[in-house]
Design goal:
The chain has about 270 residues and is mostly helical. The protein is about 80% helix and about 0% strand. The protein has two domains: about 110 residues, Four Helix Bundle (Hemerythrin (Met), subunit A) (Up-down Bundle); about 120 residues. Helix 1 runs antiparallel to helix 2 and helix 3 runs antiparallel to helix 4. This is Nitrate/nitrite sensing protein domain-containing protein.
Length: about 270
């Protein structure tokens, strides 16, 4: 009788351990799926910004490309709302509304307005990614990774904010004060992007980023003549790609430590 009771207790304990492990696996899988979807939305937002910017600034006909990207955004954000926990669904619905605003009547916007709306959506994605990651780190008891991640995440955000300010000034360089603001922003972007080498030195040292940083350094000197808006946009696009690559590198390394590698993502 005692042996049977001991076996029953052991089996019950094993059953509870299995259920607990299964529950943790389901939670991890849900978080992983949220991160994968948010990462896709972030990437597609960047592509949509590039397509619409090129049409607004240089007259390229990217309407069909923009429509396809908008369809993809709608699919991904709908899936995000479906898989999100009940208490977090409102945050994903806010993202959905931002994406709807982003994709409506963009042909009638100024470049600066287009930049601002895309920037808001991209940052919203990053804040949602941040929330999922921090919750995951807390549940996993990885406070050591949490501190390092927070520092790196803040550096990426600072670099993005500085680049956004620089891109907005490209559209308004007619007055001396506007040019002065542009030169100051150029210096700020150079410093903040260079600092990202602490997170991913290979990305910042890559040919496309190194060339853009050298060009940016020349803009910081106020006596230098400014190149065309198209050249300026090309430089900031290269730097935007570098920042996105640093962020994705940071994200991928962290999630691989916690769970499994993220799928390959081609950034453009």
């Amino acid at each position: 009788m005692f042996v049977l009771l001991a076996m029953a207790i052991s089996l019950a304990i094993l059953g509870l351990m299995y259920l607990y492990a299964k529950q943790r696996e389901n939670v991890s899988q849900r978080k992983y799926e949220l991160l994968v979807e948010l990462r896709e939305v972030l990437s597609i937002c960047r592509q949509h910004r590039s397509a619409t910017h090129h049409q607004l600034m240089f007259g390229e006909n990217n309407h069909d490309q923009a429509l396809e990207l908008e369809h993809q955004l709608q699919q991904h954000v709908t899936h995000l709302i479906h898989i999100a926990n009940l208490d977090t669904k409102p945050m994903y619905r806010i993202l959905q509304r931002k994406l709807e605003v982003l994709t409506q009547d963009w042909q009638d916007r100024s470049v600066a307005r287009n930049q601002m709306l895309h920037g808001r959506a991209i940052r919203h994605c990053m804040f949602l990614l941040d929330e999922v990651i921090l919750a995951w780190l807390l549940e996993a008891g990885r406070e050591d990774l949490s501190d390092e991640y927070h520092i790196n995440w803040q550096q990426v955000i600072d670099a993005m904010d500085a680049l956004t300010q620089l891109r907005i000034t490209i559209d308004v360089l007619e007055k001396p004060n506007d040019k002065k603001r542009f030169f100051l922003n150029a210096g700020s972007v150079y410093r903040k992007v260079t600092q990202l080498s602490m997170i991913s030195s290979l990305t910042i040292a890559s040919p496309h980023c190194a060339k853009a940083l050298r060009q940016l350094l020349t803009f910081e000197h106020q006596n230098s003549p400014l190149p065309s808006a198209e050249e300026l946009y090309a430089v900031t696009t290269a730097l935007s790609l570098a920042i996105a690559q640093v962020y994705d590198h940071m994200l991928s390394e962290l999630i691989e430590t916690l769970y499994i590698p993220l799928p390959k993502l081609v950034l453009a």
